[in-house]
Every structure is written in C-alpha cells, then in structure tokens.
Amino acid sequence: MKTSKDLIYSKPIALILLSTLCMATTTGKEVLLRSTNEAIRIAFLHNRDLRVTEPSVEQAKRRLLLSGRLSNPKLELSSKDDSIGNDQQQGNFEVAIRQSFPISPRLSRERELRKRQVSLAEAELVKHAWRLAAVVDETVIGLIAEKERTEGQRAIIKINTEIVSFLQKQVVIGEASSLDLSQAELVGRTLKQTVIKLTSNEKKESIKLKQLLGMEPDDELTLEKKLELPAEEPKKHLSFEEILGRRADYALALATINTAYAAVNLEKSKRIPDVEVSVFIERERSFFPTEGLSRNTMAGLGVSIPIPFHQKNADVMEQARFDRIKAERKSQALRFRVRNEYAQALRGTRDSWRLAKEASGEILQLAEQNLADFQSAYRQGQTSLLQVQRAQEQLLAQKNAALEAIVNFHLTKARLREVMGDYPTPEFIPN
After folding, report:
1. Would residue 93 count as lying in a domain?
2. C-alpha distances in angstroms, 431 versus 51, 54, 61, 82?
3. Nearest-angstrom CA–CA distance, 424 and 387
4. Is residue 220 included in any domain, yes or no?
5. What is the DSSP letter of 5?
6. Is the pLDDT confidence value at 416 over 50?
7. 300 in a structural domain
8. Which residues are registered as beta bridge partners of 98?
9. pLDDT tens digit string along 359-404?
C-alpha cells in the first residue's frame, strides 16, 4: 500500500481496461476474477463505503484554496448634527474603510496548516483503502475455501455413489445384503446434506464479496483461482523501514504529526493581534458667530494597535501542543506494534506452511490408497462395508484437515500481506 503522496489518477488506457473488467457492476453481466489483486482494484473503484470518504479530500483542498486571505474590510458610515441642541445646522458626515493586517506570519501558517490537512485527508483515504484491501483479500480466500470444501465433499459423494451402484448389482444377484445397501445410501444422503450446507455458505461468501466490489447480489461472479500450496517455504523479507514506508496507518500517523505541528505554529502566530488600518473622509459643518455656517472636508489615516495584556488563545495553543504530543506518542507506539506484528505474521506464515505441507502430503496419499485398497478388498469379498466406510470417513477427515491447513496458510499469508502493506496502488478517479 502506497502512502498518500503516491496517489495517482488513472491514465485513460488503464481506466478503459478497468472499466471493461468492471462493466458487470453496472450492466449485470458476469465478472471474472483471476487474482486477488483484480478484486482489490475493482473494490478501489466501486466500493460504496470507500466512495463516502473521498469528498473529505476535496473538502480539504477547497479549504486550502480559501486560506491565507486577509479578512474582509469594514465600511463605516457615521452622521451627526445638533438638531436636538442649539439647532445651528452644525454636524458632520464620515465615511471610513477599516482593514486588519497581521504583523505575524499567521496567514502563511494558516495556509501551511491547510496543506497539511489535505495530506492528512489523503492519508485517511489511503488507510480506508488499505483496510478494504485486507477485507477483500480475506473474503476471496473464504469464498475459494467454501468452493473447495464443496468440491471435496462432492468427490467423496462420487466415491460413495460408486459403492452404492456396486451394492445394487450385488443385491440383485444375492451376493450382498440389502442392509449394507441401505447403510451406504444413508451415508450418501448425509454427505449430500453437508453439501447443501456448504453451498449455502459459499453463496453467503459470494454475496459478501460482491458487496465489497460494489456489485449487485444478482450479478454473476466467477473466481478462477485455487488455494494452492507453494512448493517452497515463503522467504520474502523486508526491512523494518521498508514496511513502515508501505503502511498506510503509519503514513497517517506522520501526517497527523505534521498537521499537529502546523496547528501549534498557527496558534503561536495568533498571540500577536492584527493591526487595524483605517482610511476616512469627513464632511463637517460648523457655525461661527462672526462668519456664520462654514463647511469643510477632511481626510485621514488611522492605525489601531491592540495591546495584548491577556493571551486569549492560550488554552487553544495548549490543546494544539498536547495534540502534537499525543500524535508523536501514537507514532512511536505504532512503530513498536508494527515490528511485533511483522514478526508474528512472518512466523505464523512459515509455521502454517509446514503444517499444510505435512497435512496435504504423505498422510493424504496414504488415506487415499487405504480407501482404494478397502474398496478393492470389498469387491472381492475380503472385508466388510463398515471397514470401507471407515476408510472413506478417514479420507474425508484427512482431506478436510489438509484443506483447512491450506486455508489457514493463505489466511496467515494474507495477514502478512496486510502487515507489509503489499497491495496495489489505489487509483482514485475524480468525478
């Protein structure tokens, strides 16, 4: 998972390819997925919940455009006369324009804070995408696992069907008991009930994945992917700093620290109040005993300098300082947690690979050979149906154990991938 600075817009060709691939999300046609990365890319483009978080980036950019401006000037009009006094037609009329100017770097620091907030909003969006990718990865594994569980159960049903077919022929010629046939048919029905349950679980996982991909429940989704076990033990290893560079939550932590520093600097610059400059024009009428009524016009320039006896934003500045301290400590705690998460995920992936390798290797082959031997012996009348069924149950149990071990390996591998932030780059397309 790239950091916020790696957010890029899709090029036209990439957009066309992805739109072609995802056309089913709007037309109801079939979507074919060949890899988990394809599913993650479609989720980045069409997931409804991710779309909800995108406007926050645009909002932060709009606030950046509107930041760093002087406050609006004030227009003041005043008029007075002596009509309730001597009524000598004395008075004046004044027009003034007042404008505040900061003598501190408040405007530049405000703009810097808005820039940091844009980066913070982008980092939050990438973190949402990172979490979404992890959920999609795990859901794809769950769906494939349900498919393979169903296929494994159907393979056992096929074996049992062969036994039932054999017994039906033997009962007709009187060489097998009808009780054995009834027992075999009962086992077959039990297996079919399990298939129905597994099929229901498969449909639930499919609908869950469709929701993540922004698809309708009635759309067709096909996965051309199997849970295969690598021939060799996973050996991928990254340095701790490389992992931090990929982690979206660490990028968000750094963006939070930068934003907190910018907020502290802005509050510090607010300690010095703005200076107010005014320009005015005044029209005056005065009465003199010797000269009578006289008119005069005056213009001037005024400056208002506040005296900051009390620091009004002291509490806000302290809050900003503590926000910065908390952001730094969260970053330190995250570094410690990531180091441990990576060690646990890497160890879990290697251990689960060894267990899956053993469960799907010689033991499974022995169970398959054991069932084949008992089937052959039963056809020759050398063993009982009960022993065949026990061998069949042993094979089913071993196949299930091998599949669960492989599923567990892929889940631990997905967890390692999440810890490493090893996902495709989000390609957010502007509306």
Report:
1. no
2. 10, 10, 15, 64
3. 52
4. yes
5. G
6. yes
7. no
8. 74, 278
9. 887 777 888 788 788 778 877 777 777 787 788 777 787 888 888 8
Structural domain count of the chain: 1
> pLDDT value at position 15?
42
What is the span of the domain harbouring residue 312?
4-69+102-273+308-420
Dihedral sign from CA coordinates of 115, 118, 123, 126: negative
The dihedrals phi and psi of 224, each to the nearest 5 degrees, come to -100, 65
CB 422 within 8 A of CB 243: no
Q: Which helix (H) or strand (E) holds 11?
A: none
User: Taking a C-beta distance cutoff of 8 angstroms, is the pair 231, 357 a contact?
Assistant: no
What residues are paired with 300 via a beta bridge? 280
| The 3-state secondary structure of 34-91, one letter per residue | CCHHHHHHHHHHHCHHHHHHCHHHHHHHHHHHCCCCCCCCEEEEEEEECCCCCCCCCE
Other Cβ atoms closer than 10 A to 21: 17
Q: Residue 403: which of 63, 122, 119, 156 has the closest Cα?
A: 156
Length of the chain: 431
What pLDDT does 28 receive? 54
Both tokens of 314, joined, read 């002291």
Distance, in Å, from the CA atom of 289 to the CA atom of 360, rounded to the nearest integer, reads: 119
CB neighbour list of residue 89: distance below 8 Å, 6 or more residues apart: 81, 82, 285, 287, 293
> For the domain that residue 395 is a member of, what is the CATH number?
1.20.1600.10
Does residue 133 sit within a domain?
yes
- Residue 230 per-residue DSSP state: P
More confident residue, 145 or 170: 145
Q: Which residue has the tokens 């208002």?
A: 304
User: 428: helix, coil or strand?
Assistant: coil
What pTM did the predictor assign?
0.76
C-alpha distance from residue 414 to each of 139, 346, 351 (Å): 10, 11, 14
Q: Cα Rg for the chain, rounded, in angstroms?
A: 38
SS (H, E, C) 126-194: HHHHHHHHHHHHHHHHHHHHHHHHHHHHHHHHHHHHHHHHHHHHHHHCCCCCHHHHHHHHHHHHHHHHH
Structure tokens at 41: 């890319």
Of 25-29, 65-69, 140-144, 248-252, the one with minimum mean pLDDT is 25-29
Q: One-letter amino acid identity for 348?
A: G
| Cα angle, residue 139 at apex, residues 134 and 141 outer, rounded to 5° | 100
